[in-house]
Specification:
By secondary structure, the chain is an alpha/beta fold. It has 19 helices and 15 strands. Helix content is about 40%, strand content about 15%. It binds pyridoxal-5'-phosphate (PLP). Pyridoxal-5'-phosphate (PLP) binds next to helix 6, helix 13 and helix 17.
Length: about 450
């Protein structure tokens, strides 16, 4: 029999609904607090930043939320994405495990981020928004939203973390090609940016700082500009569920079911996207798939952070949410997976990790690049350094299966390609990449610097 490598779906198989884990989760969502008042946040608090369509999704307890036809139409540019059996990698590892990956790098901007950029721009458009602001780390989110804003005729200002702005000029050129304005963050454009620059003119920036700048611009725009976030928030995780819903159908086509589902985590959205539909099958369908979230040793919010209320940004302007956090003042080292340098983690995902329904593990940067290069040399695809965290974990699982002789089925999400990350690959190939381990003694300091929230019973 001929061996199949790609499992493809038709456009009619693009999901008609986003899946909301909160409808089935045993973990009750923790409410958000207003950063100014310290009181429970109301939908009105959010309306300065987001259109009502997205706020409703943020707090919805409905199991399935219909995807607007206009959004499904735009998804057709690249969805359904392929599920690929990594046969050449299996052979290289000489493992009895079957390794599958869902490839989100086929999206026009190169990552899964378009799955939420398109609906975010769409809901803003129908609410009458004319312009949006956002931050970007590695530039993946900025390019996805830049494309989506152009589709719906919205202006976009992007605050790009300084270290990425310098390391990845081509991502900026892409955003500018899509028609957006890009500023290096910290920037002289905002009060918060000026404050950070005054203290440290050479600041490398952080996602937390860039979020503060983008939020500040939207909050003081008299309602003319809204803000978009590429991860962390519940509506973002919801939009990403198309990944896992398609993967369920594709694993079915392959005639297998995963023993373990793996994704890298920055804010948690691509992992949630592939994992939550499988978690539903664990909770409701009697399956027992392990769900494994992989983060860098350098920014280990799930494995070393504390589970507490903290600000979503550095300036303390974004809503206060309950999550695993390294503290909103955490300054991440300049690792090459820029998209994984966030101090916190999606509250929905944090709650599930805390409840023991999802496992988390951290990995070192040098092994990540080693895995990335091995993957490129066997499967041909050059992965984003972020996605390579999931590749490494999948390879480790496959090697454990080899040692035990177990015929394990592994599924991981390949969240994006690394065509804009070649400078980082060059550093790796010329021996200039080092490991950075988050210092254990920092953990004790986190709790001293988070907002004091009197929890509402
Ligand atoms: C942004 C990004 C990530 C990290 O963000 P999540 O919200 O955790 O998914 C991972 N991979 C790629 C390719 C990204 O662009």
């Amino acid at each position: 029999m001929e061996q199949q490598t790609k499992y493809l779906l038709n456009e009619s198989d693009i999901p008609h609904f986003w899946y909301n884990i909160n409808a089935d989760s045993p973990v009750k969502p923790a409410p958000a607090y207003n950063p100014q008042t310290g009181k429970l946040a109301t939908p009105d608090d959010f309306s300065v930043l987001f259109p009502m369509g997205l706020i409703e999704q943020e707090v919805s307890m409905e199991r399935f939320i219909e995807i607007p036809e206009e959004v499904r139409e735009a998804y057709k540019l690249y969805r359904p994405t392929p599920l690929i059996r990594a046969r050449r990698l299996e052979k290289f590892l000489d493992t009895p495990a079957h390794i599958y990956f869902k490839y989100e790098g086929v999206s026009p901007s190169g990552s899964h981020k378009t799955n939420t950029a398109i609906p975010q721009a769409f809901y803003n458009k129908i609410a009458g928004t004319k312009a949006m602001t956002t931050e970007t780390g590695a530039g993946q989110w900025g390019s996805a939203l830049a494309m989506a804003c152009q589709f719906y005729d919205l202006d976009l200002e992007v605050y790009m973390v300084r270290v990425s702005y310098d390391q990845k000029p081509y991502r900026r050129f892409l955003m500018e090609t899509y028609g957006s304005k890009v500023f290096a963050s910290p920037s002289p454009e905002t009060n918060f940016g000026r404050k950070v620059l005054a203290e440290d003119p050479n600041s490398a920036g952080s996602l937390g700082i860039a979020i503060s700048e983008a939020v500040e611009v939207a909050a003081f725009s008299n309602g003319t500009k809204k803000y978009g976030l590429g991860s962390v928030l519940h509506h973002v995780l919801l939009h990403q569920s198309v990944i896992g819903e398609e993967a369920l159908k594709q694993m079915d086509l392959a005639g297998e079911y995963p023993d373990v589902v793996i994704g890298c985590v920055g804010g948690g959205s691509n992992f949630a996207g592939i994992a939550f539909p499988f978690l539903r099958e664990n909770l409701k369908g009697g399956q027992r798939t392990r769900l494994l979230a992989i983060e860098p040793d350098a920014t280990p919010s799930l494995t070393k952070g504390i589970y507490a209320y903290d600000f979503g940004d550095s300036a303390g302007m974004a809503p206060i949410v309950k999550m695993f956090t390294l503290g909103h003042d955490f300054m991440p080292p300049a690792i090459h997976a820029g998209g994984l340098r966030y101090h916190g983690m999606a509250p929905t995902l944090s709650g599930l990790v805390d409840a023991g329904l999802i496992e988390a593990k951290s990995v070192p940067q040098t092994r990540v690049f080693q895995a990335a290069v091995q993957f490129a040399r066997t499967e041909g695809i050059l992965p984003a350094p972020e996605s390579a965290h999931a590749i490494l974990a999948a390879m480790d699982e496959a090697m454990i299966a080899k040692a035990t002789g177990e015929k394990k089925t592994i599924l991981f999400n390949l969240s994006g390609h690394g065509h804009f990350d070649l400078a980082s690959y060059n550093k790796y190939l010329t021996g200039q990449i080092e490991d950075y381990i988050y210092p254990q003694e920092e953990v004790a300091k986190i709790s001293q610097n988070i907002p004091q929230i009197v929890e509402y019973a």
